[in-house]
Amino acid sequence: MDVVESAWAGSPTAPEATLRVRELLTSVPSVGPTRAARVMAQLEIAESKRVGGLGIRQRKRLHDWLVRRENRPEVTPSRLVVLAGPTAVGKGTVSTFIRENYPDVHLSVSATTRSPRPGEVDGVNYIFVTDEEFDRLEKSGQMLETATVHNAFRYGTPRAPIDAALAEGKSVLLEIDLQGARSVRKAMPEAVLVFLLPPTWEELVRRLIGRGTEESAEQQRRLETAKVELAAQDEFDHKVVNEEVSQAAREVVDLMAIPSNT
Ligand code: 5GP
Prior knowledge:
The chain is an alpha/beta fold.
């Protein structure tokens, strides 16, 4: 704000006046080059324009945009984000993308009693345990939450790594089912709950069948679960549509106010 005011008050060759609008916008917190380009198009300001070279109407539009931006409430970074959503919506793909592209996010590794799928690595995708081991972890209070998913296997979130990451000031992402999200909300009310939506129901069915890792009775069971899960979306703080993985991941990570490296 101060920059544009002194640019327009002073000499046209002053440093503020020769600053490009694009540079001014990207100096605003959480505005990157893509966002800046979008804002400039919306304000009808050409890509190469400098602050001092703007016409009267462009100045007004830019001024108003900066005022709106300055006055908007502070976004408080969320430290614990729970990503849930219907089965096969792509939670796993989004969280894998986050693991690979946003190293500052601590992704919780769940324990499960199901067997590894091809390519899954113990300790990375899940901690694969027996029923007895799962019982032991649960009874000794080491789980933040546990749930039996699709009436089949047990899944749970180990508590210690999350506490440690939060204590270090890191942001933590939990990719769990709906029951788990509800349990976390009770245990940690400060957690932010994000619901991942498919672009359409048809797309969800296509993704579920397309994965081909489950036999048809299991697919049917998962479809039923997905219907019930979709109905719970309004319990969540935010909804993100998984149209495209990197975009969905970006939206989730934005809630943690993590700087981008993509
Ligand atoms: P999958 O077996 O396909 O990897 O996961 C099945 C479901 O279990 C997914 O909806 C996934 O989000 C959920 N899930 C994975 N880990 C946990 C966990 O620790 N707790 C809960 N409640 N659900 C989990």
